């Protein structure tokens, strides 16, 4: 066991004990992520950030995490600004990058890119999103947010709301939550439900899973209301999109009847799914969730690169 | 008082004493800016540079300033290369960025963006140019250049030459100089004069302000000749532009009759406003001005982030 | 003598003794490049990377090299994303950049850009490729690869294969090898031979140089087979290109009859010039060559910026 030198291409690369180890580490690293404590644990180490599609918040939170641990970064922020991939295979690119640092954080538009990269690289590869595939560090920070709010992941009732078909974030999260015996409620527009194979994977674990079509009931039962974007390009016309998007929009009135400790989460950026008036309510957890990206990624980098915490 | 934790969205956010404090600090930091001395004052701190429009020299001088103080940077160099702003509000973006570092340096195309950012951010926001609005750190380095040349800002005669209507640099500078009782002479092409509200703001301070239309007289009287770009797009046709631009061009012959200690300043990049032959004259101060960007920004970062100097 | 403070715009800026000094230093720095040892030799120093055309592998290897020595970087990754060069002369840009760090690494599309930059900059300029001109650090890492494989550069038989007309990499390398009395064999498609002036420069040194048109003979005689890209745009039509490219492609069968210690090199990225099956043979040296970019650039930065090694 031990996470030192390990790849993270899918949340399923880690056992539940290993996920727990990362979450416990992340909690301990919060003062470091806030800049209240500092560390040179990763001094002398270089992290290669290879973002073949741009993702500013994921990139910046990794760069902050690495640097708050005393490490350094070399970064490809956007492959369109490079000539590197002109006809070069991903294997060759990764082999080259693995010479420039102690680990590679990879963002790529193709599903499976991270697993391929992990196979050819001598150095650990961390998947920062590969197309319709995985985004395991997002899942870890989602779990960290729930655990911080409730002190546990066991017995929590999580409602996933919005586009559950195309959102890779909710697929990974649902699978991970199932490991903890979480109760899941799904509410999605017609045609945007959870894919059958994800659903079956969850049901196999024995997790309780039900569907809901009334937003007030969905809100009332939830400990966690996880909202995702509904993308315009999934709809035949603007009118249909507006209608659906409108009926999935969370505002202050949607939260009437919610449990006092219920939290609203969102992977951000939001466009109109959550009204700004929700920000001032005690339910809003999405900015905290964004912050937790830093300690969670610090925890991962510490454990993978140094095998220990500051 | 004290600048620790303060925002800088407009030069008017700082009192004259505070401006003096920054200028004095900048002088002390020159050996650090030149790399002759080094400091770890900001070790463990992260600066977020959010350049939603590119500005290479402003960005690089901030990055150099932060790193020469031992700090680290995370950078958005160009928003067109990010997916971040797809429909996300500036408020949400800033709240997210405020989790990644101890302060935010913001460059944005919209006037007022910095003030909005300062309102939503828990961390200090430094305006690095917001559209037609403010660019206060440019003003500070302009003041530092004049003060270094003359030992004071009092009683200096500054001539502003060129487009005084659209150049936000000269608006801020003129307002700041007025605080020091500077004598101002304005010379601009027809239709490109100083806007009435800027002019009135200056006259209210009691500062002396006059207009000039003969370049030799403007040069002869000046201690500082501050030259700005005249932009082609302000003119109806190319011929008119060429004529005006030609008559505002400074070359060696324009400087005949200048005071021996007169300095020529320019925010750079120049296109044709100052002939290269001027570079070799003792009057050329624009490269020194570009260098002073580093100690001035080091002074600001030291005072805002640490509340003290190295 | 001594390399401290020196420019490197062309491989001919360095004497053979100086090249040897860099190569010896690079060998010593391999454990530092691998992250097994760390150094703070360049702490407090800033390297300006000005890439006016993108070149990801050159940029990242310089950034890694600088940071593994404790130094910092400020980077222009791609000039298209900056407004800096809007009408500004290269001289002005370089003068400005020379204020932001202890040395400038310049990549530019125009031949001669590095030499011009070195003339106007107070700080050392390292050429990271200027159009059809020079790329001296590539030449140094090519030499380092050959020397590591054979323990010497003397008496080595190097075969240059592919487009020898437009590949600036092979021009510089051929000239440098000629200094060491290397035996050179050239094999190129019709019309893509070594330019006459490069050829004459090599012959003047007394180096042995011959042409070959049979790939099996070229392989059989070589200690080093240096393969370069054959670019589609050099050919009148696709068919002609495919035919030529196909006959210059190296695969496992091409290597039958090679000397046991023969190495295959390539500046990378490759597109189809070397089949992936070659990677697993003991002849493949191109990934090692890519890695050696880091210690070679560390050696240069140490000697130019500090005048000594860690």
Q: What is the compact description of this entry?
A:
Chain A is built from eleven helices and nine strands.
Summarize the structure in words.
The structure is a homotrimer of 310-residue chains. Chain A is an alpha/beta fold and 310 residues long. Chain A folds into 2 domains: 11-136 and 293-306, 3-Layer(aba) Sandwich (Rossmann fold); 137-289, 3-Layer(aba) Sandwich (Rossmann fold). Chain A is built from 11 helices and 9 strands. A 5-stranded parallel sheet of chain A has the order 7-6-5-8-9, with helices on both faces. The first copy, chain A, has a 4-stranded parallel sheet with strand order 2-1-3-4. Chain A is globular, with a radius of gyration of 19 Å. The first copy, chain A, starts with 15 loop residues before the first helix and ends with a helix. At the A-B interface, α3 and α11 of A face β2 and α4 of B.
Supply the key terms:
homotrimer; about 300 residues; alpha/beta; Rossmann fold; five-stranded parallel sheet; four-stranded parallel sheet; 11 helices; 9 strands
């Amino acid at each position: 066991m031990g996470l030192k030198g390990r790849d993270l291409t899918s949340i399923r690369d880690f056992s539940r004990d290993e996920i727990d180890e990362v979450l416990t580490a992340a909690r301990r690293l919060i003062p470091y992520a806030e800049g209240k404590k500092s560390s040179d644990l990763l001094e002398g180490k270089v992290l290669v950030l290879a973002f073949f599609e741009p993702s500013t918040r994921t990139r910046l939170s990794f760069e902050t995490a690495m640097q708050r641990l005393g490490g350094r970064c070399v970064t490809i922020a956007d492959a369109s600004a490079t000539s590197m991939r002109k006809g070069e295979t991903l294997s060759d690119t990764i082999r080259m990058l693995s010479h420039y640092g102690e680990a590679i954080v990879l963002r790529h538009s193709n599903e499976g890119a991270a697993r391929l990269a992990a196979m050819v690289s001598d150095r650990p590869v961390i998947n920062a999103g590969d197309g319709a595939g995985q985004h395991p560090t997002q899942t870890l920070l989602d779990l960290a947010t729930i655990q911080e709010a409730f002190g546990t992941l066991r017995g929590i009732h999580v409602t996933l709301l919005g586009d559950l078909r195309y959102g890779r974030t909710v697929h990974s999260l649902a699978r991970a939550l199932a490991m903890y015996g979480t109760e899941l409620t799904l509410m999605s527009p017609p045609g945007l439900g959870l894919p059958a194979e994800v659903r079956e994977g969850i049901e196999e674990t024995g997790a309780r899973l039900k569907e809901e079509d009334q937003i007030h009931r969905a809100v009332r039962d939830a400990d966690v209301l996880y909202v995702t974007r509904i993308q315009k390009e999934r709809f035949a016309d603007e009118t249909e999109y507006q209608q659906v998007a409108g009926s999935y929009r969370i505002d202050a009135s949607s939260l009437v009847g919610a449990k006092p400790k219920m939290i609203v989460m969102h992977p951000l950026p939001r466009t109109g799914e959550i009204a700004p008036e929700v920000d001032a309510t005690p339910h809003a957890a999405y900015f905290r969730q964004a912050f937790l990206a830093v300690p969670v990624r610090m925890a991962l980098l510490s454990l993978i690169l140094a095998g220990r915490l500051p």
